[in-house]
Amino acid sequence: MEKLPKIGLPILIGIIILVIVVAKSAVTIDSGEAGVLFETFGKGVVTDKPPMGEGFHIVAPWNKVYIYEVRQQEVFEKMSALSSNGLDIKLDASIWFQPDFKNLGKLHQEKSKEYIGRVLLPAVRSAARSVVGRYTPEQLYSSKRDAIQQEIFEETKKLVGNQYIQLNEVLVRDVTLPPTIKEAIERKLKQEQESLEYEFRLVTAAKEAEKVIIEAQGKADANRILSASLTDKILQDKGIEATVKLSESQNSKVIVIGSGDSGMPIILGNQ
User: Fold this and answer.
1) Domain range 73-177, CATH architecture
2) Which of 37, 81, 189, 267 would staple 132 via disulfide (CB 3.0–4.6 Å)?
3) Nearest in space to 61 (alpha carbons), one of 10, 34, 21
């Protein structure tokens, strides 16, 4: 094997060193992520420039890049708080959030990658305790669920608003009351429902009775008006009209004119 020329060995060594340097300097940031640059021999965390975006980057080998997920994330949290009357209430919540992209450098510098446990979750717990303390267990269990969820979101948003965290939503997935309190509330709600159904039946029956009375009154009024309008002369005219029509019928009959009461005809059929 021929020996490498003296000039070729340094070039080979240089290429190897260059490959190592490039390998150590190359940073690939995946989709939905961003990088925070730390300059070892400079000013440390870079906060006056936008974070490094997706793709391939070359940085000095003595610098570091901290990669953050900047898409919306979800974290589940089980919390315990006291109601307005001092009962222990447990909440299961989902928190939707993401880091503030423009201030990612400041987030890393002040909170680090542990910002979820150091900032976000304590803020949610504090907000939940504050909000739950305003309501009774019955309100928490039934009518005020949506309002409580919105209030927890608003209060948490205030707490993390200057912490470089973008809060998107807080969802209260479940509210757990002490078993005895839950059973008492369910019994009360059932009784209220039965009472409402009974009242509905009473109202319906009253309306039906009112309808019957109105119909009967209408018929009575109609009969009274009709009776008042029927004179002897009108009855005689109606009788004559009926007699004429019957006389035109093909059936056998005997008509005695002026033989009935008040001179009305008597009609004798063939039977």
Assistant:
1) 2-Layer Sandwich (3.30)
2) 81
3) 21
Pairing of strands 64-69, 33-39: antiparallel
Residue (of 269, 235, 238) closest to 251 by Cα position: 269
Token reading at 258? 């002026």
β-pairing, 253-256 vs 165-176, is unpaired
Cβ distance 129 to 156 under 8 Å?
no
Q: Are 157 and 120 in contact (CB under 8 A)?
A: no
Q: Can you give the pLDDT of all 271 residues of the chain as single tens digits?
A: 455 555 566 666 666 655 555 556 788 899 999 999 999 888 899 999 999 999 988 888 888 999 999 999 999 999 988 888 888 888 999 999 999 999 999 999 999 999 999 999 999 999 999 999 998 887 877 667 788 899 999 999 999 989 999 999 999 988 888 776 656 655 666 556 656 665 767 777 778 878 878 877 877 777 777 666 656 666 566 666 766 666 666 665 555 555 555 555 555 555 4
What tokens were used for 220?
A: 């009575």
Q: What is the pTM of this model?
A: 0.61
Report whether 80 contacts 48 (CB < 8 A): no
Phi and psi (nearest 5°) for 61?
-60, -20
**Where are the domains positioned within the chain?**
8-69, 73-177, 180-229, 232-269
The DSSP bridge pattern shows strands 73-82 and 88-99 to be antiparallel
